[in-house]
Amino acid sequence: MELLVSGASPGPLELKMSQLPAPLRSSFHGLKVGLVRSNAVATIRPNIFFCTYKRPHNGRNTKKREILPQNVDLPPILPKRKKKPYPIPIRKIQQAARADKKLAQMGIEKPLEPPKNGLLVPKLIPVAYEVLNAWKVLIRGIAQLMHVIPVHACRECSEIHVALTGHDIQDCRGPTSGTRKSFHSWIKGSINDVLLPIESYHMYDPFGRRIKHETRFSFDRIPAVVELCIQAGIELPEYPSRRRTKPIRMLGKKVIDNGGFVDEPGPASSGPLVMELDTFRALERFPPPSRSEVPRIAQETLNAYEEVRSGVTKLMKKYTVKACGYCSEVHVGPWGHNAKLCGEFKHQWRDGKHGWQDATVDEVFPPNYVWHVEDPSGPPLTSGLKRFYGKAPAVVELCMQAGARVPDNYRPMMRVDIVMPEDEEARFVA
Question: Which GO terms describe its molecular function (predicted)?
Fold first, then answer.
């Protein structure tokens, strides 16, 4: 059907459906349109009639929601006889190095922005204080929950398990695991088994003299998260840090002006704040909570864990952290130290020096994945049903068994939607 409208018009004329004449409304339904609504708009041009439909705006957010997968693969176990993969592609690293070398050959200084030039980033100072406060809450919460929720650790490997009894999965790789048919030898776990102690050297001036193997005992070892917060702007009398007012200057890889070397002032006497930042004897410092307080402490601990991880991610986007590509050593600063303490794969070829590369969040604040247990008081996990089990970070599993609500982003790896078959049914499952 072709509809002609006589009369000239300087432009298109829009009419609501209710404004069209009755004969036109009756003939409108004969047009080849997919859907006719009461809020359709008819546009009339000379000798042309066409219709469009405007979807009503009902105030909904047009941004698509992030759809989490139903299940995800378990975290891979990196081989120890191979270097870790670079977090930044090697081609980008080489491209940036060639650009810096070209500027140095032309005599042009390397453009640096805070904090790469030694100055602080003002907007990240509140983030550092939030991370430090959440870190103290996290240590206190884990220590209190471990009085109520049993945690088991293997005597010979790094495996831990959060349940009433240890699991029966045969994946132990300890020195004498062959005599036990790869079964774990369970003992009572400590807080360092749940919250892995990743430490770093504290430096008064990260851009000053590098740590040598002979001078390594002159520097304190503190948690890497605390050192990252100190370099991001936190002031602790026990761990002073140099605050620059003038930026450093670099020509290629060479520092041509760092404001001179300054002697490190003596640290203040250790107070109670230093003890709150470390896990040393935390189970003795914090008494067991009452049964009614356990769910609240579990939720606060889980929230603190998420806040620490989120804050560390924000800080590491600006502040440089280095990690060894072979072992778990971490150094907070623009370049790594020279202490010869690496004993992993091919350390003889490197004279014990670390193979420094850019660190990831999991290396500074490791999640330490453990097997997820649906029923902590039920039968132990077995090797026959291993492929049906999920995993979760040790802190998340500990808080979940204490009554905390698990965030949705951990549920796919925990595989909470999988129905666990019986032992004799497992071989029939596709």
Answer: RNA binding
Element spanning 93, H or E: helix 90-105
- Check whether 29 has a pLDDT greater than 50: no
Strands 160-162 and 330-332 turn out to be unpaired
Reference 161, options 141, 143, 177, 185; nearest CA is 185
Residue 191 CA: distances (Å) to CA of 93, 107, 151, 273? 38, 53, 9, 19
Q: What is the dihedral of CA 276, 281, 287, 289, to 10 degrees?
A: 80
pTM for the model: 0.81
How far apart (Å, rounded) are the C-alpha atoms in residues 65 and 55?
20
209-238 pLDDT, tens per residue?
A: 899 999 999 999 999 999 999 999 999 999
Of 418, 422, 401, nearest in space to 162 by CA: 401
Instruction: In whole angstroms, give the CA distance from residue 422 to residue 379.
Output: 12
Asked if pLDDT for residue 198 goes beyond 50, the answer is: yes
